[in-house]
Design brief:
homodimer; mainly beta; two-stranded antiparallel ribbon; 143 residues; 2 helices; six-stranded antiparallel beta barrel
Chain lengths: 143, 143
């Protein structure tokens, strides 16, 4: 049997987006943050809510526009918000946690973006400093 | 307005899970793989389909069982498959692409897991070799 669809319940929202961003976790999910302070970095999964429509979710190739000189590539070869499932992931520095609100540095998400998940950053699983990437990803912002 | 839910359409499936795993992208999404070969590593987002039930999705704290000595922590401080949105992410080495099938090394997903997204691994955004993590994550498997 091939499973075709899944359902997400958003666990929070980007309350403020800037160099330091505020991510508020809804109170019913807040106890899931226990001990997150033991990690210096977290991976945030969020929903590109402005791209959650048929046109953007049918896009399969893009010219990454924030990267001058980028060729047309598949959406799975880019971090474009236009993709079949409009999920963004971002590695951020965890600055502090106050009650249910995280202050993070380096979150590339718009204000009001729904939050899907928070995961601890684990260097031995997640860090590959010498991974190979094409030249165009070095121009413009990190993603 | 707070957006509460989102809908996923799965783009592929884990066809074989081992040291080298095979991930088949459904044909209608296959053109999204253009130029993925330019990257040595990819981030795979998949669905923990066996945990997609009310009990597992209500779990907010766990004792990570593959990590001896781990304390009880919030699910957002762990990579546990029991969590509100059963999404796994895994950084894998891209060994080869044949038509719509990726061969990858290091995928920690069960056979038949639906695939949600593929993203290129970009070291300057994704690699933080010196991120701090508590001692218990060093025992057992990487995640």
């Amino acid at each position: 049997m091939v499973i075709k669809e899944g359902k997400l319940r958003f666990i929070g929202v980007v309350e403020h987006a800037d160099e330091l961003s505020k991510v508020r976790i809804h109170s019913e999910f807040c106890s899931g943050l226990k001990s997150l302070n033991d990690f210096s970095h977290v991976i945030i999964l969020y929903w590109f809510h402005l791209r959650d429509n048929k046109k953007e979710r049918s896009t399969l190739q893009v010219v990454p526009r924030r990267h001058p000189g980028a060729p047309q590539v598949g959406v799975f070869s880019s971090r474009s918000p236009s993709r079949p499932n409009p999920i963004g992931i971002c590695v951020t520095e965890l600055v502090k946690i106050e009650e249910c609100t995280l202050t993070v540095k380096g979150l590339d998400a718009l204000e009001s973006s729904p939050i899907i998940d928070i995961k601890p950053y684990i260097p031995r699983a997640d860090s590959v400093p010498d991974a190979r990437a094409p030249g165009w990803v070095l121009c413009g912002p990190p993603t």
